[in-house]
Design brief:
- Helices cover about 35% and strands about 25% of the residues.
- It is of the alpha+beta class.
- The chain has a single domain, classed as NADH Oxidase (3-Layer(aba) Sandwich), CATH 3.40.109.10.
- The longest helix is centred in the middle third of the chain and has 18 residues.
- The structure holds flavin mononucleotide (FMN).
């Protein structure tokens, strides 16, 4: 799996165009982390069970926990167009965009 940290303002602007209606609140956050993976990059059991989404969820949870420790605020979303996200970030078609983690600073950090 891979985390793609997007903080370049131009890239962020393009990613905003891939967000679903209702997620406009994410436009003023300073970073979007794309969580990417594919079935073959992780454990595939002989009986067909696959683990890439489970493991991506574990890693994402830990990332969000660490970000919180660092004073950031994270919010995972599924409301985006994965085709557009792939286009903007030049992600190969065989990689799934599992979630986007909208990341910003705590309001109290901004005003202090
Ligand atoms: C699968 C999934 C998809 C989600 N997609 C969105 C989304 O597109 N936009 C959004 O604002 N929240 C979305 N959420 C909700 C947030 O991730 C979060 O869980 C929710 O806002 C509760 O957060 P809070 O406990 O910090 O208030 C989604 C949650 C899940 C589980």
């Amino acid at each position: 799996m891979a985390f793609y940290f997007c903080y370049d303002k131009e890239i962020l602007k393009k990613l905003h165009g891939a967000l679903s209606k209702g997620n406009e609140w994410a436009h003023d956050r300073s970073m979007i982390i794309a969580v990417l993976s594919q079935k073959e990059l992780d454990c595939v059991m002989k009986d067909g069970r696959v683990y890439y989404q489970f493991d991506s969820g574990l890693a994402t949870g830990l990332l969000m926990l660490r970000a919180t420790e660092l004073g950031l605020v994270t919010h995972a979303i599924a409301g985006y167009d994965p085709v557009k996200v792939r286009e903007v970030l030049s992600i190969p078609e065989n990689m799934e965009v599992i979630t986007l983690i909208i990341t910003g600073k705590q309001l109290q950090t901004l005003v202090s």
